[in-house]
C-alpha cells in the first residue's frame, strides 16, 4: 500500500463528510451571503476563531 | 527511460489537468452556491496548502531542526512571516476594529500548560494544526489517524474551555497600532538574533525556499485576514466538525457553555462551508493533495511502526486538539496569528510550546515513533 491509497481514503472521507453536512444543515442562502471582503465592508466580523472566548 | 517512468509521466500529465480542473470547480461551486467570500476563502486555503506542501515548509520540522541540529533557518522564516503580517495587521486592527478581529486571548495557567502539551504532542505526530492537515492531504497515515481524534480533542477542549480558564487568567493584553507593530517587529528581531546566536556555525542562514514560503504565507495570511475579517486559524474548525458529528449521534452539545452560545449554535446549524476556519482547513488538505499528486509524491510506502506508536499517535492526536483549545490556538491560531495581531498570549504560547517540543522529541524514540530499527 502506498500514500496514494491513504490520501484517497482521506479525501473520500472528507468529501463524504462535506456531503453529509450539506444534507444535514440548513441550506445556504446565497442572497444572504456576506460581502466578498470583510475589510471595508462596514460589517462587524462574525467568524469564530480559536483565540476567541465564547460570547453571545 | 523505463516503463515505470513512462507510466508515471503519462499519468501525471493527465492528472495535472484533472487536479487543476477539480480545484477550480470546487472553488466556483462554493462561490456560486454558498457565497463568493466562502469560495475565496477556500481558494486561500488551497493556497496555504500549496505553499506549505510545495515548499516543504511547516512548524514541527523547523522547531525540531533547531533543537536537534541547531538549525534556526525554519524558525527564522516563521518569524519573518509573522513580522510581515504584523506590520500590516496590527495597524489595520487599530483603524478597522469594527470589521476586523485579532487572535487575542488571555494568558492563563491552562493556556500555558496547553501550549506545552501541544508542543510535545506535535513532535509525536510530527505535525501541528496545519501540519496534520497538510500531512493528511499528502497521504501520511500517521496524520490520517491523528486528524479525526485531533478534531474530537478540539471539540472536547472547547466544551471544557471555560472551566479551564476559570483556574486563573490575566485579562487580554495586546499591542496596538503602529507602535504595537514596531514593538512586535523589534521583539521578533530580538528572538531571531538569539536563535542565530544559538545556531550551529555554518547552519544559521534561512534556506531560500523558506524565505519564499514565508513571504507567500504572509501574503495569504493577510488575504485571509482581509477577506474573513479575522486571522488564519485551524482548531476551531476541527472542533466544529466533531461537534456536528456528536450532535448527529444524539449528543446535546449546546448544553456546553462554549457550544451553547448563539454564534456556535448558528454554526452548528449551518453548513461548514460557511465557517471560515473549516474552509481554509479543507483548502489545506486539498492544496497538499494537489502538490503531492503533482510531483508524484504519493508513491511512498507506509512507515513500519510498532503498535505502541499507533496508540501514541491516537493519544497525541486527541491531546493536540484538546490542548490547543486550552492554549487558545495552535501554531497557526496562537503563535502565527496571535503574535502577528499583537497578542501577548502568542508570545507565551511560543515559549511554552517550544519547551514542550523539547520533551516531545525525547519521547519519540521511546514510543516507537522513529520506526523499527
UniProtKB/TrEMBL annotation, chain A:
Domain of life according to the entry: Bacteria
Signal sequence annotation: 1-26
Keyword line: Signal
Protein name, per record: Uncharacterized protein
Source species: Palleronia pontilimi
Automatic annotation (TrEMBL), chain B:
Xref: Pfam families: Sulf_transp (PF04143)
Statement: the UniProt record of this protein carries the keyword GTP-binding: no
InterPro entries for the chain: Sulf_transp_TsuA/YedE
TM stretches of this protein: 17-34, 40-63, 75-94, 106-129, 141-161, 173-198, 210-228, 278-297, 309-328, 334-359
UniProt entry tagged with the keyword Acetylation: no
Record family assignment: Belongs to the TsuA/YedE (TC 9.B.102) family.
Organism annotation: Palleronia pontilimi
GO cellular component annotations of the record: plasma membrane
PANTHER family according to UniProt: INNER MEMBRANE PROTEIN YEDE, SULPHUR TRANSPORT DOMAIN-CONTAINING PROTEIN
Keywords: Cell inner membrane, Cell membrane, Membrane, Transmembrane, Transmembrane helix, Transport
Subcellular location: Cell inner membrane
Annotated membrane topology: Multi-pass membrane protein
Entry protein name: YeeE/YedE family protein
Main subcellular localisation: membrane
Amino acid at each position: 500500500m502506498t500514500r496514494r491509497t491513504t490520501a484517497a481514503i482521506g479525501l473520500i472521507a472528507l468529501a463524504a463528510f462535506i456531503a453529509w453536512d450539506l444534507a444535514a444543515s440548513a441550506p445556504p442562502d446565497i442572497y444572504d451571503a456576506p460581502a466578498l471582503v470583510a475589510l471595508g465592508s462596514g460589517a462587524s466580523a462574525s467568524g469564530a476563531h480559536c483565540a476567541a472566548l465564547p460570547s453571545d | 527511460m523505463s516503463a515505470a517512468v513512462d507510466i508515471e509521466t503519462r499519468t501525471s500529465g493527465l492528472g495535472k489537468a484533472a487536479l487543476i480542473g477539480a480545484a477550480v470547480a470546487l472553488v466556483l461551486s462554493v462561490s456560486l452556491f454558498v457565497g463568493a467570500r466562502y469560495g475565496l476563502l477556500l481558494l486561500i486555503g488551497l493556497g496555504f496548502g500549496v505553499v506549505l506542501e510545495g515548499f516543504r515548509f511547516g512548524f514541527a520540522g523547523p522547531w525540531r531542526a533547531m533543537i536537534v541540529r541547531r538549525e534556526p533557518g525554519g524558525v527564522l522564516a516563521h518569524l519573518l512571516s509573522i513580522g510581515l503580517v504584523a506590520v500590516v495587521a496590527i495597524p489595520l486592527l487599530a483603524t478597522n476594529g469594527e470589521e476586523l478581529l485579532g487572535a487575542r486571548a488571555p494568558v492563563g495557567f491552562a493556556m500555558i500548560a496547553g501550549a506545552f502539551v501541544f508542543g510535545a504532542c506535535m513532535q509525536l505526530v510530527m505535525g501541528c494544526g496545519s501540519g496534520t492537515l497538510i500531512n493528511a492531504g499528502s497521504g501520511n497515515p500517521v496524520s490520517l489517524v491523528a486528524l479525526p481524534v485531533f478534531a474530537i480533542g478540539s471539540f472536547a477542549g472547547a466544551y471544557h474551555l471555560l472551566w479551564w480558564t476559570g483556574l486563573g487568567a490575566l485579562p487580554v493584553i495586546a499591542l496596538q497600532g503602529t507602535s504595537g507593530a514596531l514593538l512586535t517587529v523589534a521583539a521578533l528581531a530580538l528572538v531571531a538574533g538569539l536563535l542565530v546566536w544559538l545556531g550551529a556555525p555554518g547552519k544559521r542562514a534561512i534556506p531560500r525556499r523558506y524565505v519564499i514560503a514565508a513571504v507567500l504565507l504572509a501574503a495569504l495570511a493577510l488575504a485571509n485576514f482581509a477577506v474573513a475579517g479575522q486571522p488564519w486559524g485551524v482548531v476551531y474548525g476541527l472542533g466544529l466538525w466533531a461537534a456536528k458529528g456528536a450532535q448527529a449521534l444524539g449528543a446535546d452539545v449546546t448544553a456546553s457553555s462554549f457550544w451553547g452560545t448563539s454564534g456556535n449554535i448558528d454554526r452548528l446549524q449551518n453548513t461548514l462551508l460557511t465557517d471560515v476556519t473549516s474552509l481554509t482547513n479543507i483548502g489545506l488538505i486539498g492544496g497538499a493533495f494537489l502538490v503531492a499528486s503533482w510531483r508524484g509524491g504519493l508513491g511512498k510506502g507506509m512507515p513500519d511502526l510498532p503498535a505502541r506508536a499507533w496508540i501514541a499517535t491516537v493519544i497525541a492526536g486527541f491531546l493536540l486538539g484538546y490542548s490547543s483549545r486550552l492554549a487558545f490556538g495552535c501554531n497557526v491560531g496562537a503563535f502565527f496569528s496571535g503574535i502577528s495581531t499583537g497578542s501577548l498570549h502568542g508570545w507565551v504560547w511560543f515559549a511554552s510550546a517550544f519547551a514542550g517540543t523539547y520533551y516531545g522529541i525525547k519521547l519519540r524514540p521511546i514510543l516507537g515513533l522513529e520506526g523499527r530499527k
